[in-house]
Amino acid sequence: MHIEKNVFESVIGTLLNIQGKSKDGLKERKDLIAMGIRTELGPLKKGKRTYLPPAAYTLSRKEKKTLCKFLSEVKVPEGYSSDIRRLVSMKDLKLKSLKTHDCHVIMEHFLPIGIRSILPEKVRSSITKLCSFFKSICSKVINPAILPMLQKEIVITLCELEMFFPPSFFDIMVHLVVHLVKETQLCGPAYMRWMYPVERYMKILKGYVKNRSRPKGCMVERYIVEEAIEFCTEYLSNVQSIGLPKSQLVEKKEGKNLIGNKIVAVSRVERDQVHLYVLHNENEVEPYVEIHKDVLRDPASITERLRCLAYGPSFHVFSYSAYAINGYTFYTKEQDDKSTMQNSGVTVVAEAMHISSVKDLNPKFANLSYFGVIERIWVFDYEKFQIPIFGCKWVENNNGIRMDKSGFLQVDLNRVGYKDESFILASQARQVFYVNDPKSTKWSIVLFSNKVIDENTGDQGDIDVEIESFTRNDQDENIISNDSYIRNDHNEGKMAIMKSIIRARGKGYLKVSIDICLDGDVPLSSSLIRVDDDAGYLKVSPYDNGTCPSKQISILSSKDKGPKI
C-alpha cells in the first residue's frame, strides 16, 4: 500500500514538477554528466541562468493543464473514493492533500487515462504498464499461475523506465516493486495484509476519545465496554447482536428509495413496455413459458404473485431521484448533475441474437453488455408487491462502443439506440461511471464501480477483473531499441536557480534580486517583497508587479551567515 503511494508520488511529482516530489533537477542532471549517460540532457548555460533541456518525461505547460483538467473533471460513484476534483489545483498545476487511498485510485484507474494524449508513446506505454501491474497485484483474486509472468513483466517495465527517467528516480521504494510478486506468492493477496482497514479503525478509535488529556485510557475503556455489551447480548433473548443489521441486507437486494417521492401517471405504451419486460424476467413466470397452458388450466397451481403479475401494474407509479439496490446507490441523470458524485451510469448483461447477414438462417444467441445512463427511476405497484424499474438512455452497440488498442472500453454517449427497450429491472443493474477521454472529446471511457453484492452473504467488495498480461508485444521491440531521451516537440525546459542577492531595504522589507524561471514563466528579478519571520524561515511573497505571477519563495534565515535561498 505504501509502496504504491510512494511510487505514485515519484511519478506524478516528476511529471508535474512538484517541488519536493520531483526526481529531476539540477543535481540530477549533473549526475548524468558525471556518469557519462544522456549527455544531451545536461544543464546548459544561458547568460546568467542554467537551462535544463526537456527530458522524455518533461511535460509542457499545455500538457500539465490537460492532465490536471482531466482529473479536475472526474466524478466517481458514491463510496468509490474521495472527491478527486478537490485534490487538483489548476492554479499551480499540481495535486495536493493526497491520502494513501487517493494515490491508490489515481495510480490504478485515472493516471493511465489522463496521460493518453500527452507524453511520447514509449514513455506513456511504460507508465501505463506500471499502473497496470499495481492494479493486477492488488486484485482480490489472483491466479498463482500468472505470478511468474507478472514478475517477468515488471522487471521489463522497470528496465524501460530506466531508459527515460533519471537514476535518482529509482530509490528503494521503486526497487521494492520487484519483490511484490514474491511477497504475494508467500503471503497471499495484498488486500488481506494492507493497512486500509487499520487506518479506518484508527478513525473509530479516535472517536472514542472524550478526554484529550487521557486519549489512551478513553480508547481502552470504550473498547472494553463495547466488548462486554456484545458478549452480554448473546445471553439476552430477542436482542440483535452488534453487526450489520439484517434489514440492510434486505435493502441491498430489494432496494430502498432515497431521494424524491412523487406519484406520476405513465402512458399505456410505457406501462405495457415495462409490464412485458417484467413478465419476461420474473422467476415466477419463467416456468410457465415452457409448460404453458397445461399448468395454467389448473388454477390451484397459480401463486398469488403470479396472479398479481397477470393483472398488471397500476398506471400511477412512484418516481424517485435516487435508489439504493444491489449494494449500489443509483441517481437519475438530473440528480447526478446536481451532485458531486456520478451515480447514473449503468450496465446490464442481456442475451442478444447475432446474425452475420440478412440471409443468415442460423442466428446465434450470446450475452452482450449494454451501457447507458439512468433517466427515470420508477416503482410499479402490483397491489401485493412493488417492482423498481430503471428507464435508461442506452448507447447503440454497433457504432457506439469500441475497445481501443490500449485495452480501454470506450462509449459514445451521444449515439443513442434501443429507444423502444429503455427499461430494465433495478435488480439487474450494475453500476459504471464514465470519464472523458483526453484523446478524443467524442468518446468516454467506461470504468466499473468497485462495489458488488454477494448473493449468498450480502457482503460487498472490490469487483475482481481477470488479470491479463500488461506487456504488449507490438511495443517491446520499439521501446528497447529507442534511444531518444530528449523531447523535440516542445522546448519548455526548466531554469535552475543561478544566484541570489538579498539586501535590506527598510523595516519589514527586503530587496531581492534572483533569477528563477520554472515552466516557462517570466523570471523574477529585483522585486519588492515583504518578509515574515517564522521559526527560522523567511516566507517571502513577491508582489505582482505586472511582469511575474505571484509565487512563494522560502528563504532560510541564519543569524551568523545571513539569509540564504
UniProtKB/TrEMBL annotation:
Q: For the DUF4218 domain, which residue ranges apply?
A: 137-241
Q: What is this protein called?
A: Transposase
* Highest taxon of source: Eukaryota
**Provenance organism:** Pisum sativum
Q: Which PANTHER family match?
A: DUF4218 DOMAIN-CONTAINING PROTEIN-RELATED, OS01G0348150 PROTEIN
The UniProt record lists the DUF4216 domain at: 381-446
In terms of InterPro entries, this protein maps to: DUF4216, DUF4218
